[in-house]
Amino acid sequence: MGTVVVVGAGVTGMVTAIGCALAGHRVTVLDRGPIPNPASTSSDQHRALRVLRPDDLDGTRQMAEARRRWLELESLLRTRIFRPVGVVTACTPDELDLALDTAGKVGLPAVAVSPDALPPVVFPAGTTGVFDPDAGVLLADRFLRAAAEWLAAHPTVALRPGCAVAGVDDHQVALVDGTAVGADVVMVAAGPWNTELVGLPVVLHRQTMVYLRPPPNLVGWWASAPGTGRIGADRRAWLLPPGDGTLLKVSSDAVCREVATTADVDLEPWADRLLAEPILADAADYAVVAVRDCHYATDPVTGGPVLTQIRPSVWSRPACGGAGFSTAPLVAREILGAVMEVSA
């Protein structure tokens, strides 16, 4: 039996802790706030889980595995956390051919759909849709609550909320109260604040998301609508449909910007810019319920998610947006492999 310390009770930390506990290891989860923490980067009503990556066979296979693992978690937690509503991605004719070819090679039942099938959504000129029925929506906050309850009841897991970390070294986590916690493996998944603990440089991003209530005449349509992506003026916008207590969420990389810290003051009207994008037909009919800024970190070189082994026993995974949420089970699999190696 190995010992694991997880720093950060967001999605990556929670999924990693569950996997390690199921494998029989002792796990301590530390978070500077409550567990689950509503201020964590992972906290949100819903996140997309896309399986089909049109130009990436390996990535599509990996996401199919992530989806399978999410369904296992749903069964374990006995809580509905995945809405299999599918995702439609806007494609040019060439992109559509590539997407359908990738789907065929992987065995995904993707099909082309006309924009006319989604009248409330504005598709970019010259595009059609490819529907990925295996994709859907992860109910993020619901998962975090259910995971915290499961971990709290597990005999080999210790949850330590309100426990701020001062630093991380090989096989050891130093706390601000002067004490330390030792472990065979340490997983630092403390969101954008990872850099403060492990020193690895990342690029910090802030993204604005708007939550809407559809007009009464479209409530029924949206209740079974798929997610929709690669829309908007520059094809960087996404819609996540309402359902299971969630609102319609609009996001776009067009309003994503680099910031120095999460505390940076930002006075630009980013929500107004997002709502001005050609995303929804008759957008003025939708009621704005909430606006939220989230932060995530990317690798300064690749621009993608970061999973790094920084010491023999220490791994780091800062928050990396929606992609980080959906791929959390794949990260947990790698960490579990590391634990099994050192505890063998």
Describe the model.
The chain starts with a strand and ends with a helix. With 344 residues, it is α+β, with helices and mostly antiparallel strands. The relative contact order is 0.20. It is globular. The strands form four sheets. Strands 6-7-5-15-16-17-14-18 form an eight-stranded mixed beta sheet.
Report the C-alpha radius of gyration, rounded. 20 Å
Oligomer: single chain
Beta percentage is 25-35%
Mean pLDDT over the residues: 93
Strand order of the largest sheet: 6-7-5-15-16-17-14-18
How do the SSEs run, as a string of H and E? EHEEHEEHEEEHEEEEEHEHEEEHEEEHH
Structural class: alpha+beta
Described by the principal axes of the CA atoms, the overall outline is globular
Helix percentage:
25-40%
Biggest beta-sheet profile = 8 strands, mixed
N-to-C terminal Cα separation, in Å? 8 Å
Uncertain spans, ≥5 residues at pLDDT below 50?
A: none
Number of contiguous helices: 9
Number of E strands: 20
List keywords for this structure.
single chain, 344 residues, alpha+beta, 8-stranded mixed sheet, 9 helices, 29% strand
Secondary structure: elements and pairs:
Elements (H helix, E strand, L loop, with lengths): L2 E5 L3 H12 L3 E5 L16 E3 L7 H21 L4 E2 L3 E5 L1 H14 L4 E3 L14 E5 L3 E3 L1 H14 L3 E4 L4 E5 L2 E4 L4 E3 L2 E4 L5 H5 L4 E11 L5 H5 L3 E5 L5 E4 L7 E11 L11 H6 L11 E12 L9 E4 L2 E3 L4 H6 L1 H16 L1
Parallel strand pairs: 1-2, 1-13, 2-9, 5-15, 13-20
Antiparallel strand pairs: 3-8, 4-8, 5-7, 6-7, 10-11, 11-12, 14-17, 14-18, 15-16, 16-17, 19-20
